[in-house]
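Training component of the fellowship. As part of building independent skills, the fellow (R.M.) carried out the full modelling exercise for a liganded target. The chosen ligand was glutathione. The inputs are recorded below so that the supervisory panel can assess the work.
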Amino acid sequence: MAPLPDITFYYFPLACSQAVHIVLHELAIPFKAVSTRHNSDRKLEAADGSLTAEEYRDQVHHSNYVPGFVVTFPDGNKESITETPAILSYLASLVPERNLGGKTELEKAKVLSWIMWIGGTLQGTAYSAFLAPRRFVDASDEKLKEGVQAGGRRNIEAGYDHIEKHLQKPGSGWLVGQDVTLADAYAYVIYRWGIRLAGYDMEKYKKYTEFARRLEGRESVKKALEDEGVPAHFN
Ligand SMILES: N[C@@H](CCC(=O)N[C@@H](CS)C(=O)NCC(=O)O)C(=O)O
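Fellow's submitted model of the complex:
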C-alpha cells in the first residue's frame, strides 16, 4: 500500500461532514480533526484558532463550508478536496481492500449514485430549500419563502420514502451490496437531520430506523460522535 498522505479534516458537529468523519474511523486512517465555528460574519473558521475564515476560504474551502479536507503528501505538496461525495470516494480509494466504495463495478456505480443523490438532491436541493430558502428566492417575500420551504419539505419526505422503500427490499440491510459502504455512512447522517433539523418522527421509517440503529452500533460511528461531542441517538 502506498504511504497515506497526512490528512487534516475540518468538521462541524452533526453536519454533512460527519459522513467523512465516520468513514475516516471506519478505515482507521490517521487524521487530524479540526472543529469549526462561525465568526461574527457567520463564516466558518477553525475553532482552534489555526485558520481565520479568510484563511479557511483560501486554503481549505472556497465557500467556507464543511467538510474541509486537506491532504499533505510526503514531498510537501498540499491539496484540498471539497464536496462530500468526492472526499468520501477519495478515502475509499486509499484503502481499496475495504471496498467502501463498492466491491464490483456495478456496486461502485451504485454507491456513487447514492452519495451523489444524498448530497445533491436530498441535502443540496431539498434540505437547502427548507433550511435556507434565501438561496432560491427573495426571502423577504414571506409567501415565496414559505412556498420554497414547503417544496423542500415535500422533497425531504420523498427522499426518506425512497430510502425506506429501498431498505424494505430483500437484501443485506445495507444500501449497496453485502457490506457497509460510503452510502450507509452518509445515510446515517441524513437520518439524524430528519429528527434534528426537520423535526420528523423518524421511527415511522421502520427499516431506515433499524438501519440507523445498526450503524450507530459500529465503532466508527461511536468514535465520530465522541470526537464531535454529540450524543448517540439510540441507546
Ligand atoms: N456540496 C457541499 C455542501 C456542503 C455543505 O452544505 N456544508 C454545510 C454543512 S452540512 C456548511 O458548511 N454550511 C455552512 C455553514 O454552516 O456556515 C458538500 O457536499 O460538501
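The panel noted the following from the submitted structure. The CA atoms of residues 183 and 221 lie 14 Å apart. Helices lie at 17-26, 53-59, 84-94, 105-131, 142-168, 182-196, 206-216, 219-228.
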